[in-house]
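Request: Could I get any protein with tokenized structure?
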Amino acid sequence: TPPLNPNTVYYYNVTSCDSAGNCATSGYYNFNTLSTPGTPWWNSNYLYRKRINVTNNMVSTLNADNPINIIFDHASLVSAAKSLSNGNDLRILYYNGVSNIELDRFDDYRFNDALTSLWFKLQSSIAALDSNDNYWLYYGYSSAINPPRNGNNIFWFFDDFSSGSLDPNKWSTSIFGAIVGGGVANLTGYPRWLVTKFNVTGNQIMETKVLHTSTTAGGAPGWSLGFQCGNSTSGCTISPWIRYAQQVISGSRRASHQGSSAYSGADQAYIANRSYTYAIKWVPGSRVEWSIN
């Protein structure tokens, strides 16, 4: 069968015959093809998909390789028996005009939630005030396992501390007392420091997830996140701290400003054994510094 042309009306009829050779032909039916061919289905095991439209609201080009974040109501899909509660069936696909490409996707907020969050890497640049809707979220495969989630294929800098030791290509060698294992970097006692080797080349945002093991209403010991501009913080300009309370009972994500100085600590009250995501905007020429103080 030859391929159908887009934006075209096609007419057809149906002829059927019995074993004696008696035939009858129906009247004519018609259908319209879309103005552009639809994106082919990636994998028939996945019963559902939703289009992701990435819109660039800036007046400059959004370059490829930028991390993209989507937040959606995964809980409603789970309750409708359309998706797995562990999120294994959630897959991000990019259609390049020829084939579907499965992308790494990284979850930074729990599945089966109204605010489930996934990150993936932009595959092609988007001009100013333009959009690209060639991305898809697939789901609905009950036997799905091992989704690709390598953060190194998504973010400019990423470390989930899964290797058991600090990566010397990512972290400064002048580390004091950081213990890595079990997917965490454990900073205990005083002082403890982690400094990246990643140099910021443009305005970027850093997020880190912290699990506090004790309760505090501010002061020492506390969690501090800031810039290292040479040996001084002079000349650094950063946006206010933002803290996202990740595992609040209501399931919602709250944000509160934590300070706006060049080097500042997130010293407001937090709850023991609850994960928080801290976010801060980087500026060119800086490095990010973590510490317990």
Residues 217-224, 227-269 have pLDDT under 50 and may be disordered. The longest helix spans residues 74-79. The two ends are 71 Å apart (CA to CA).
